[in-house]
From TrEMBL:
This is Isocitrate dehydrogenase [NADP]. The record marks 161, 231 as: Critical for catalysis. D-threo-isocitrate binds at residues 114, 116, 120, 130, 154. It is an enzyme of class 1 (oxidoreductase). The modification N6-succinyllysine is found at residue 101.
Amino acid sequence: MYKHIKVPSEGQKIRVGADGSLVVPDQPVIPFIEGDGIGVDISPVMRNVVDAAVQAAYGDKRRIMWMEVYAGEKSTRVYGKDVWLPDETLEAVREYVVSIKGPLTTPVGGGIRSINVALRQALDLYVCLRPVRYFQGVPSPLKRPEKTDMVIFRENSEDIYAGIEWPAESEGARKVIKFLQDEMGIRKIRFPATSGIGVKPVSREGTERLVRKAIQYAITHKRRSVTLVHKGNIMKFTEGAFRDWGYALAKREFGATEVDGGPWLKLPQGVVIKDVIADAFLQQILLRPEEYDVIATMNLNGDYISDALAAQVGGIGIAPGANMSDSVAMFEATHGTAPKYAGKDYVNPGSLILSAEMMLRHMGWTEAADLIIRAMEDTIRAKIVTYDFARLMDGATQVSCSGFGKAMIERMGTGGAQRAASR
Ligand SMILES: NC(=O)C1=CN([C@@H]2O[C@H](COP(=O)(O)OP(=O)(O)OC[C@H]3O[C@@H](n4cnc5c(N)ncnc54)[C@H](OP(=O)(O)O)[C@@H]3O)[C@@H](O)[C@H]2O)C=CC1
Ligand SMILES: O=C(O)CCC(=O)C(=O)O
Ligand SMILES: [Mg+2]
């Protein structure tokens, strides 16, 4: 029994079968977190679009039973001050296997640590999967945006996101600096008296499970290459080790062999495993995006790369994602809470809708997922777009956040439109 979560009277849990695959009932209960800031705008639009797509694809045979669970600011209103991530939210997300969330605010400098990161760590959602593709008609700063077609595998459980840090001049920072100087012989901290300290753990296990998923994905989806993106020339034993462990795994577990004496490798299936230093990567994705395909990288690099690549295909208004463990999956947009637009029915709901599209595909509901893609393409092709695209497009019809959702639903056929109208 939950304290504040209301379990729908109808519907069943999605389960993980003995072979690891999902067992999805026709009326699955799916937990959702509304999200802070623009979460209040985009989450209901996403649910409307998903309901319409499911209705249009399967009629009354299938239906998602949405179950609200709480995190972030809304949680403090429901559960009380300082309860940002209730235990029962974690329990429900684990128990119901597949969920979706809006963005959650993290203050800069002081204040609470990221609830987004806390969710990923508590549930060990170690893969942050962010596909980046171009939709015809979306305004982009590139001449050939369709050449950007990448899938980011961002390590989601370690790196500096572990949150091990001490503020400058604190007791903790003083102790760590003293330890480094006295016990480890470190003389290179330029201003020891006023340095904050952060720790960056990167492990072999963490690297291997992430790179393994990226390689498996590349094989299954017949992609051309997996690139390990790192700053291993500078951070030798974290980012450099990530590269070395990644290559070693590809050889040991996937039978990869060296190309022209290495370090690049090739799998028996033809997938090339290569690496690139992060700064060079960031200029090459603009100049020669077609050279990159599946990307495997650490947490911070993956965060930067996600937004940079999203910009190449139209911005973070249209950048979806998923956080995944071997069993649990929680889908979420790449962007944050965009606070200045909160509650204005203004922003692009595309990122969260496309995150839901990934969710439907993950559940095996591919017909509904295909309908969402088609409706998104048709709506953008008709130049019906939110402000972010309208400001860069000639002849666009600018619509609100909910207006964009309605325009998508209208393009799904009568079943979908009826279901959406009845909400
Ligand atoms: N996973 C999560 O929950 C995430 C949470 N955050 C948190 O969100 C908060 C705000 O972060 P901030 O750095 O401002 O980044 P945001 O991603 O929230 O917003 C930055 C800018 O991106 C554009 N943008 C974002 N979402 C949309 C959308 N749906 N449609 C159109 N444009 C969009 C807007 O650009 P413009 O101003 O040009 O219109 C916006 O001002 C922080 O607390 C941060 O920690 C950040 C990222 C992820
Ligand atoms: O947790 C946050 O507030 C930011 C997270 C973020 O930027 C991301 O996951 O891409
Ligand atoms: Mg980010």
